[in-house]
Write a structure and sequence with these properties.
The protein has about 200 residues and is an alpha/beta fold. It has helices at about 5-15, 75-85, 85-90, 105-110, 130-155, 160-165, 170-195, and strands at about 20-30, 50-60, 65, 70, 95-100, 115.
Length: about 200
């Protein structure tokens, strides 16, 4: 991958005046053995399966710029982002906009509005018709931009090693980083060739 650290990604997006897109992804892993002290730590609260999580940042075209080291599946997306230092980098660094899903709600307030997440759905019952229509329009507009990060993640997880990891969990970080680097190199090469023709 051309940009190996989160700080370099934030700096590059800031210098280029571009918006990044962030999302977390889960990769299934084998369940730890019975009696393993951290056995429940790998169970994802979202999908109820044994997994590890990685945070992916892409540019507006869906090209991966950063793929984080993995965390156990029970780690929340927002917690993972905070542990990686994203809040400090955005609050103290260049003016960068980051589009995120509802899993990152709260980061906007901590970064001075640089992380944009969907608003909370305030009306549970009997919402006015105009509010529901407005909320749906906003949701679709955000999704049309955020879908590009899903494409970047799909390219990562199309590799057999990440479709479902059957090796040792301790080697997962190296596997994810290697595949992300290969994908980034391949996409950069394709992009350069397309510009030359």
């Amino acid at each position: 991958m051309g940009l190996r650290t989160l700080a370099k990604v934030v700096d590059r997006l800031g210098q280029a005046g571009k918006t990044g897109i962030i999302d977390g992804t889960e990769i299934r892993v084998r369940r730890p053995a019975v009696g393993h002290k951290d056995r429940d730590k790998f169970i994802s609260g979202k999908n109820k399966r044994n997994a590890v999580k990685a945070m992916v940042i892409t540019d507006g075209d869906g090209r991966p710029l950063f793929c984080s080291p993995t965390q156990p599946g029970s780690c929340a997306d927002i917690t993972h982002a905070r542990e990686l230092g994203l809040v400090k980098l955005l609050a103290d660094g260049p003016a960068v906009g980051i589009l995120a899903d509802a899993g990152y709600q709260g980061l906007g307030a901590q970064t001075g509005g640089r992380v944009v997440t969907p608003p909370h759905h305030k009306f549970k019952k009997n919402a006015p018709d105009c509010y529901e229509e407005m909320h749906e329009r906003q949701r679709k507009a955000r999704f049309s931009h955020r879908i590009r990060v899903e494409g970047g993640i799909v390219h990562l997880k199309n590799r057999r090693a990440l479709a479902r990891h059957l090796g040792r969990r301790e080697h997962m970080d190296d596997t994810v980083q290697a595949i992300a680097s290969l994908l980034s190199h391949q996409q950069t090469t394709d992009w350069i060739k397309a510009r030359q023709t």
